[in-house]
Design a protein that fits this description.
By secondary structure, this protein is mainly beta. The chain folds into two domains: about 5-220, Jelly Rolls (Sandwich), CATH 2.60.120.10; about 245-325, Sandwich (Jelly Rolls), CATH 2.60.120. The chain is built from seven helices and 21 strands. The strands form five sheets. Strands 1, 15, 16, 17, 18, 19, 20 and 21 form an eight-stranded antiparallel sheet that branches. Strands 2-3-6-13-8-11 form a six-stranded antiparallel sheet, with no helix packed on it. A three-stranded antiparallel sheet has the order 10-9-12, with no helix packed on it.
């Protein structure tokens, strides 16, 4: 039987800062009393393997699929480099409260310390309360000594860059960039397959036994990029029925698709899996031998063996993130 667009059962994560937007905005069947901070849409993280939820492969986990189908699922070049591990992790994040200020190590440091990949990631803001904030990077270049001085004085926020955000904003976060998601945000996150996070500051929750989580300042010191940058928010101009690039980096490429008419996409020469994350509306994904529907809040993987797909909008405009390894 031929491969087809694959859906996966979400893996829900309760967090001290989580909320209920996944049920409110996406009509997810999750307990409204639970503080669901993250939905891991497609994951190959050890202990958190996603399982197929549709078609004849239902119940198989992502590593089983890659082990059996190899390059037909992920692309030959991706399989040669990463083996049976899908190199990207796809999440939805609901921040009823602020997340910790944190940083992620790069590949070299993560391999040395944790035998893991580093964590470069990006955020697409799906929904935001008025005056929602994201904390990202530094206002000006600092030294390790200056950083530690602010940590010791409790004035870290004085040197962090703060951005007002709205729906549609995009942030690219290379490994080493200090950051925190503010409250009242619903975000699509694409990242390397890694769960290595160094927490630096947790808004006082670290001092409450009921909410305290481990801090990793000693580990973070050598992982942080202490430079400042002119711009932290990614610029782009949306275009109807055209792919608009949001992020292109060594680990993934992400484009925005806004469609009000059917469009055909040829991935024959891409040699990579493609993932769609639906942000608005719904569409039919039509392939040579099968079709699948995708709705707002859903994530779907197009195996590399499917060279061509036709996206047929049902509720216009349909808005999707298109992600692959270039």
């Amino acid at each position: 039987m031929e491969l087809y667009p694959l859906k996966f059962k979400p893996i829900y994560k309760e967090r001290v800062w989580g909320g209920n937007k996944l049920s409110a905005v996406f009509n997810r069947k999750v307990n409204a009393n639970n503080r669901i901070g993250e939905s891991w849409e497609i994951s190959a993280v050890k202990g958190n393997l996603s399982h197929v939820s549709n078609g004849f492969l239902k119940g198989n986990d992502i590593q089983d699929l890659i082990e059996i189908y190899m390059g037909e699922i992920v692309g030959d070049k991706v399989f040669e480099k990463f083996g049976i591990e899908l190199p990207l992790l796809f999440k939805l994040i609901d921040s009823a409260e602020r997340l910790s200020v944190q940083v992620h190590p790069n590949n070299e440091l993560a391999l040395e310390r944790h035998k893991a990949y580093g964590k470069t990631e990006m955020w697409y803001v799906i929904d935001a309360k008025p005056d929602a904030l994201i904390y990202v990077g530094f206002k000006h270049k600092i030294s390790k000594e200056q950083f530690m001085n602010h940590i010791n004085k409790g004035t870290l926020l004085d040197i962090m860059n703060v951005e007002k955000v709205k729906a549609g904003d995009v942030f690219f976060l290379p490994a080493g960039r200090i950051h925190a998601i503010g409250e009242g945000l619903l975000i699509a996150e694409i990242q390397q397959t890694s769960d290595v996070t160094y927490r630096i500051y947790d808004w006082g929750r670290e001092n409450d036994p009921a909410t305290a989580r481990e801090m990793h300042i000693d580990l973070a010191i050598d992982a942080i990029d202490y430079n400042a940058y002119n711009k932290y928010k990614s610029d782009y101009i949306p275009k109807q029925n055209e792919a608009v690039n949001l992020v292109q980096c060594p680990y993934f490429t992400t484009n925005l698709l806004e469609l009000n008419e059917p469009k055909t996409y040829d991935y024959t020469l891409l040699d990579s899996f493609v993932v769609y994350m639906c942000l608005h509306g719904s569409a039919e994904i039509k392939c040579a031998a099968s079709s699948e529907h995708i709705m707002k809040g859903e994530t779907i993987l197009i195996p590399a063996a499917i060279g061509q797909v036709k996206l047929i909008p049902h509720h216009c405009p349909v808005k999707l993130l298109e992600i692959y390894v270039d």
